[in-house]
Amino acid sequence: MKIVKSVAEMKNLSLTYHKCGQTIGFVPTMGALHEGHVSLLKIARQNSDITLMSIFVNPTQFGPQEDFEKYPRVFEQDCAKALDAGCDVLFAPTVSQMYPDGFSTYVSVEGITSKLCGISRPNHFRGVTTVLLKFFNIVEPQIAVFGQKDAQQVLVIKRMVRDLNCPIKILTGPIIREPDGFAISSRNKYLTEKERSEVPQIFEGLKKIMEVYENGEKKAGVLKEILLNKYHSLKHIKMEYADIVDFENLKPLEILNTPSLVAVACRTTESKTRLIDNIVLGGVL
Ligand code: AMP
Predict the structure, then answer these.
(1) What pLDDT digit, counting tens, does each position of 46-71 carry?
(2) CATH number of the domain located at residue range(s) 186-279 in this protein
(3) Is 3 helix (H, G, I), strand (E, B) or coil?
(4) What's the predicted TM-score (pTM) here?
(5) Domain boundary assignment for the chain
(6) Using a 6 Å CB cutoff, which residues line ligand 1?
(7) Reading across the β-sheet that carries 274-281, which strands appear in turn?
(8) Residue 149 alpha carbon, nearest atom of ligand 1
């Protein structure tokens, strides 16, 4: 596995692959790798010749009160995991390589970025799309793979790729979960013991409404109420939002007669960890 830290070196390497006719499958991450990231690498491998992962804790997608400083950085461990997962190239640029002095250009998808997570994280998606367009220009992958775990992010990226004619196919991998159903995330390390024992309830709530939906209930109001009732009794988790929305505009639905995203975000009360999860009803993301 090649480890590349400079943008210029990465551009040259990509050019070499292109010249040899090898396709690049790209998995962008912020590191602290886990089974979710590894599953995306597998999808990249199945769909391209060269599997390329980036590790970059992107400052522009964190708000001023967020966890940029304390975000887990475990580069040596990540290298071992990426190698083990069959990664061919690990691209880990520094902040100054990605954002040199005088950096002043941003990419902003409008509308859908101000819904759901965009309400409490106003500049988050602008940071995500800016860094990803930069990565796409540096790496020039034919394919990029993202997790359904960050469902709104997937829809925002697909919109950017469509609107700006990026020659890249976006693939989505399913949410990888712990045996108790809790969605795996690099931020789960922050949780206290009490919080950890309660967080599987987040997916339990989603599973419950999946079951009710599959038994024929299509009214969003009824499904949402079941979810909120379930979450209401939790001691260590405060809901930020629980919404059932369409894929196109992330608009709340009344009747689920199109593919629908049930997305939840919450914060734990002790460690103040922000957690998100979702399910898709009647389609795929
Ligand atoms: P992150 O390092 O948290 O920015 O995530 C990098 C990529 O991994 C994103 O596309 C995430 O959606 C994806 N990802 C994170 N957690 C999971 C998970 N539990 N299952 C599948 N993909 C995930």
Answers:
(1) 999 999 999 999 999 999 999 999 99
(2) 3.30.1300.10
(3) strand
(4) 0.98
(5) 2-173, 186-279
(6) 29-30, 36-37, 39-40, 146-147, 149-150, 173, 175-176, 183-186
(7) 237-246, 260-268, 274-281
(8) 12
